[in-house]
Structure prediction request, 418 residues.
Amino acid sequence: MIHSLFLINPSGDIFLEKHWKSVIGRSVCDYFLEVKEKAVDPENVPPVLQTPHHYLISIYRGKIFFLSVVQTEVPPLFVIEFLHRVADTFQDYFGDCSENIIKENVVTVYELLEEMLDNGFPLATESNVLKEMIRPPTMLRSVVNSLTGGSNVGDILPTGQLSNIPWRRAGVKYSNNEAYFDVIEEIDAIIDKSGATVFAEIQGVIEACVRLTGMPDLTLSFRDPQLLDDVSFHPCVRFKRWESERVLSFIPPDGYFTLMTYHVGAQNLVAIPIYVKHSICFFDTGSCGRLDITVEPKQTMGKTVEGLVVTIHMPKSVLSANLTATQGSYSCDPATKILVWTIGKLNSQKLPTLRGSLSMQTGAPKPEENPSLNIDLKIHQLAISGLKVSRLDMYGEKYKPFKGVKYVTKAGKFQVRT
Prediction:
C-alpha cells in the first residue's frame, strides 16, 4: 500500500526517507513542494495529491510534513490515520515530534518504521506493543549500545501479540493504581464584525493515562452523550455497547492513549469565550492604514483565558506596522506579512489593546477587503461543549464523579471577520 515515506521541513528540505517496496526517487516530492509554495499556510496544503504515476498523501505535525507515496488507489483516510500514528509514536518515544529530535534518534526512528509497516501495510501501531519490540531510548541504553554494538530491538515476542487483546501487555503490576482522563476541545468558529456567530463547531478528544494492575475492565459514561456526533474510538472500546447504551466499555492499554475523538456541530451550543472589538482600515491614498484591536473575556465563562494569541495575515501592500500593545508583545514579519500579537493570560481588569498605524507601499491600490483575525486561546477546567463525565466504574467499584478528569478548551481556528 505505502511505498515510501518522506519527512519534509517547512523550508522544503527532505531530512529523512524510508522505502518499503521499492525505492522511489525524491523527485516525486517536487509535485508536493510546488503546491506547498503556493499555499498561504502549511495547513492549507491539500492532504491528497495526484501525480502521473503516484498518489501523495500527507499530514502536517510539529512543523514537519509526513508525506507518503502510494502507487495504487487506497482509502486516503486510512493512510492519513497511519501517518498520525507515526507522529504520535515519535511523540510518545522521544517526548517531542520535531526535526531535531528525529535526527538525534534516527536509528530508533528507522527501527520503529520497520515494525509499524510490513511490506507497505500497517502491522504494529500500538505503543504498548512497540515498546516491547523497540525499547525507548535512554542515556544509559545509548551508551551501552555504542560500546557493545547492540540495538534497542527486543529479544522476545511482545506478550500482546499472543492474546486477543493486542493493545495491552500481560502481567502489568502497579503499587499505586491510577487513571486520568483529559477532555480537550478545540473550537473552530467564524464571527462577523457585529459579533454574531457565522459558523461554529467543536472538535474534541479524550486522552487517557491508565496505570492499573492486571486486566481492568472500565466503563465511562457521560451526563449528556447526545451532544456527540461523528465519534471515533480506540480499538479497545466495545462499539456495540456504545450504540445501545451510549456508554464507553473497554479494557484500556497500559499508559497513555487516545480513548476517543468526537465532533459537536450545533451552533447554539457553542459559547464564544471572548469579545473582540476591532477596526482595521486602509485610507484611499494607499500609503497608510490604521489598526485598533481590543480583546475582553465574557463574564459568563467564569474561567481564565490563557495562551491568547492573535494572528493577522496582512495584505501584501503593507510594509511595516508601528503599533503599541498595552499587554504582551507583537511582531510583524515583512516577508510573510503576518502580524502576531502574543497576549498570554487575559486580565479582565486591564483589557489588552493593540493600536497604531500601518505603512503601505506608495501608490499601491487600496486592499479590496480587510484581513481576518485568527485567535488561539486555552481555558483550563472547562469543556465548552458542556460535555461532562458522570461516572467511572471498574469491576463494579464506583469512583467519585470526575475523579481524575481534566477539561481543557483550546481554540485553534477562532476567526473574526473585519
